[in-house]
């Protein structure tokens, strides 16, 4: 008995050391340690718990939530000697492992009215699709800043992606990402740092534009099956609280909240009015103006390019002309030399054929030719000048 206790305490120490050396966010590493022999007991507890939950999947969802939260607490007890941050890391891995498997049994459970509430919230958001950023006093980029499309688009995309995730922490990460993108969009829109009011109205605007699928079910799932510290503390806690406030605001929204009279609000809701035509025209005018400016810029660049090209072409043509002129000059000069040489050699052969007695006449005519040669050369040069 004593030996077994020593060896089990040794293996327990080994197991704790393995978990302690785990890098933050290394889920595959966590699974590897959980499946190793020293961690046998912990793995068996996880498997038994998952089997129990599947067997009791008809229990009311609140009861299932209590079972999961109790399991988190008792599992965390094994690591009470660890620093708090490390326990949190390990428990996030446990949550991912358990809830990835249980998601299909407990999400939007039949025992509650989540599905009806999802549909009601979706209809409500759809009925408010006429609300503009200006009505919510969301700071939008001023006209000097070039913006392509809606600066809140990345935030809208992030909150829509939440429904596809299975672990509560992954859904919560989408909420955080959405909120961080809202702060970024607000920073672009204004030189002032964003305050809490701007942020909340930005979040309301994003929810109205995104109409995220199964929003109520997703929030309830995070509350019921997420780790409590994630929803109650720190940055993620702050973002989740704001999400809850934004949904409550949308559900209770009325005219005065948008600086509209109750009559105006009603006529918007009935679809008898559209957001002020003037506001829309102004937006279209702004978009058109920035498009025109961009086109003019491109046009100028194009013209500049054409001018540069034309100058290059002219230079090239001039180069070609001067090269042709040079070649012509050299050709003419060569022709003159060839002709002169031909005449000289003709003369020499003529001299060889004549008799001695004609020598004097020939000397005289040769003398005459010799004097005449410069005359011919001058003639060629004049001719060449005229050509040029």
Molecular structure report:
With 388 residues, the chain is mainly α. Helix content is 75%, strand content 0%. It contains 15 helices and no strands. The chain is elongated, with a radius of gyration of 45 Å. It starts with a helix and ends with a helix. Mean pLDDT is 82; it is low at 1-6 and 359-372.
H and E string: HHHHHHHHHHHHHHH
| N-C termini distance | 120 Å
Mean pLDDT: 82
Largest sheet: none
The share of residues in helices is: over 70%
Q: What integer value in Å does the Rg equal?
A: 45 Å
Our count of helices gives 15
The class by helix and strand makeup works out as: mainly alpha
**Strand content bin:** under 5%
Number of strands: 0
* Poorly predicted spans: 1-6, 359-372
The coarse silhouette is elongated
Condensed summary:
The protein is an all-alpha fold and 388 residues long. It has helices at 2-20, 27-34, 40-55, 61-77, 84-106, 114-127, 153-161, 168-189, 196-210, 215-225, 228-232, 234-252, 262-269, 277-353, 359-387. It is built from 15 helices and no strands.
